[in-house]
Design goal:
Blueprint: E1 12-15, H1 21-32, E2 36-41, H2 48-55, E3 60-64, H3 72-84, E4 89-92, H4 107-135, E5 139-144, H5 157-177, E6 182-189, H6 198-202, H7 204-213, H8 226-233, E7 244-247
Parallel strand pairs: 1-2, 1-4, 2-3, 4-5, 5-6, 6-7
Helix pairs in contact: 1-8, 3-4, 4-5
Length: 254
Amino acid sequence: MILEAFKLKDKNALVTGSSRGMGAAIAIALAQAGANVGCHGRSTDGKAISETIRQMGIKSFYVAGDMSDADLYPALIGKTVEQFGSIDILVNNAGTIRRAPAAEYSQAYWDEIIAVNLTSVFRLSQLAGQDMLKRNVRGKILNIASLLSFQGGITVPAYAAAKGGVAQLTKAFANEWASKGINVNAIAPGYMATDNTTALRQDSQRSREILERIPAGRWGEPGDVAGAAVFLCSPASNYIHGHILAVDGGWLGR
């Protein structure tokens, strides 16, 4: 049955950057579909989302850590396997943004954004994929790209570079792993009402310009990506590989 294809019962997932915003919405949606969900955030303040999942009768845990720390990547995969027995679904959602004119963009900003938004995606995907390949099982890796995977943006050169890289990594991994039963895809959210867009939403002129360009006529909400995430993490998407799904209110079609 079609509905069965969207269920995730007995699947074990890890969602990075899931203490709030889109990551939290994705983690809750995966749990509602039946998956056990490991959660991650930058600080210990984000434990509430994991507790919410446990109250649903679903297994969960929470790990705090900075995604620029390379030691965190094997720790997250290891914790998922330790707690759940395996990792079947990885959602690379964690990300951050730093804004400054290109001519003034600091090396520190560049290094941080590339580490958090791109290097973490490569290493976590690699580690999760190694486990899936070793067990010879079907797996799902979902990356969170961006409209700036397709466009250059303004005053965010490192973010644009990183998200462009996420799109290419998605395709590169898919090319190697599709025949192994591992689906690697991405969601490219549009302008979402999250922490990363606070500065834009507080700039009345820029916010107005953005809204005038979005056919849907509104900023996206974290929950707007949840259905797409469940789809791309479920058996319903088994023949979809290397795809970048825009969830943007129609922005790219304007």
